[in-house]
């Protein structure tokens, strides 16, 4: 493997401005998200998260991550296809 000198990176004014704009955008999104969480917890949603029912907790987690489980069929033909015994 050939060695070469490190490439010098130049920091330009445009790069700094772009970074600042992205950082401000992320901060505003974070602040909006915090505001929504505060409003959600005042509506009683926070109490649901503390409930001891495992189904509701599991459902809340699935909703949060966007997982929509499909019910499993219980008949034999769906498990093994259309095999003849």
Automatic annotation (TrEMBL):
Swiss-Prot/TrEMBL keywords? Cell cycle, Cell division, Coiled coil, Mitosis, Nucleus, Ubl conjugation pathway
- Biased amino acid composition, Polar residues: 73-85
Coiled-coil boundaries: none
Which compartments is it annotated to reside in? Nucleus
The pathway it acts in is: Protein modification; protein ubiquitination
Q: What is its main location?
A: nucleus
Residues of the region (Disordered) are 34-85
What functional role does this protein have?
Component of the anaphase promoting complex/cyclosome (APC/C), a cell cycle-regulated E3 ubiquitin ligase that controls progression through mitosis and the G1 phase of the cell cycle. The APC/C complex acts by mediating ubiquitination and subsequent degradation of target proteins: it mainly mediates the formation of 'Lys-11'-linked polyubiquitin chains and, to a lower extent, the formation of 'Lys-48'- and 'Lys-63'-linked polyubiquitin chains. The APC/C complex catalyzes assembly of branched 'Lys-11'-/'Lys-48'-linked branched ubiquitin chains on target proteins.
| Entry-linked PANTHER family | ANAPHASE-PROMOTING COMPLEX SUBUNIT CDC26
Q: What family is it from? A: Belongs to the CDC26 family.
In Swiss-Prot or TrEMBL terms, this protein is called: Anaphase-promoting complex subunit CDC26
Per the UniProt record, the source organism is Galeopterus variegatus
């Amino acid at each position: 493997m050939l060695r070469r000198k490190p490439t010098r990176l130049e920091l330009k004014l445009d790069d700094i401005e772009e970074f600042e704009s992205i950082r401000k955008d992320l901060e505003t999104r974070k602040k909006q998200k915090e505001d929504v969480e505060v409003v959600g917890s005042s509506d009683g949603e926070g109490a649901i998260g503390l409930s001891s029912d495992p189904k509701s907790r599991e459902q809340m987690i699935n909703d949060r991550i966007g997982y929509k489980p499909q019910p499993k069929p219980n008949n034999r033909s769906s498990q093994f296809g259309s095999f003849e015994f």
